[in-house]
Structures are given as C-alpha cells and as structure tokens.
Specification:
Length: about 150
C-alpha cells in the first residue's frame, strides 16, 4: 500500500449479530422452573423447539417477548384507547374553531388611505401584532372615549 492510504481492512470490525441469534446461556443467570413453566404456557411452539434440539426448523423464528409484542387483546385495547383519544381531541379542536368563528363572525369592511394602511402595517410588524388586533383596540378605545 502507498504511504498515507488506508483501506477498510485496516480497521477492526466486530461481527454483526443477527436478530435471531440466541444469547450465550453462560452469560445469563439461571431461570427457575416456575419461569420456564410460565414461558411454556404462553409460548408452546418455542418450547417444543427447545425440547427437541434435533429438529431444526428450516426458517428460524425469533423468540417472542411479551414486552416487544403485546397480546392481541392488549393491542386492540391500546388501539381503541388511542382512537378514542384522537376522536376526543378532534372534537375539542373542532369546537375551538367553531367558537373562534362565532366570535369573529361580525366583520367590518372599511377602506383606508395608503398612508394609514402603511402606518398600520408598520405598527403591526414592530409590535409583533396582527393588524386586526390594533384596529379592534383602536375602535374599542374610540367607543369608550365617546361613551359607547
């Protein structure tokens, strides 16, 4: 190799574990018979594979964990709960939009001259407000000052 060049083979790389590999039994603590019976009652197919090591299935099925894959009933209950929450929040959002539309239903259309419109735009941008808020506050102040 030329000086200053490197290749992929120059770096040590750990072998990649496949998802179906069974961990080393020496590294795990021993499981008592009650835990094995509980596993056997929940997963009879895998126990049959473990009892007969001479029969190796053609396709390796990774062991199922109740933490990773919940039971169908639990999945159904969770999906139902989530859909009810989504429906409730959708209804709340719809009600908020309807209330806002009810409040701002009465529009006032008034023509402004160019200079007034530009002053209003500048005031809105400098104060980080909407122009409608400023106009509403100005009208409200005028009505209060004149006794309305």
């Amino acid at each position: 190799m030329a000086k200053g060049t490197s290749s992929i083979s120059d770096f040590p790389v750990a072998p990649r574990r496949s998802r179906g590999n069974v961990p080393n039994p020496m590294s795990q603590p021993a499981i008592d018979n009650e835990a094995e019976n509980a596993v056997a009652s929940h997963q009879p197919d895998e126990v049959a594979v473990e009892e007969a090591p001479a029969q190796v299935p053609a396709v390796h099925v990774p062991p199922r964990s109740s933490l990773i894959l919940p039971s169908p009933e639990a999945r159904r209950e969770r999906a139902t709960t989530k859909s009810l929450e989504r429906e409730a929040s959708r209804i709340r959002l719809q009600e908020l939009k309807q209330n806002k539309a009810r409040e701002s239903k009465h529009f006032v259309n008034c023509p402004l001259d160019y200079d007034t419109k530009k002053r209003l735009e500048r005031a809105a941008s400098e104060n980080d407000l909407k122009m409608t808020v400023i106009v509403k506050a100005a009208i409200d102040q005028f009505l209060k000052d004149n006794g309305y």
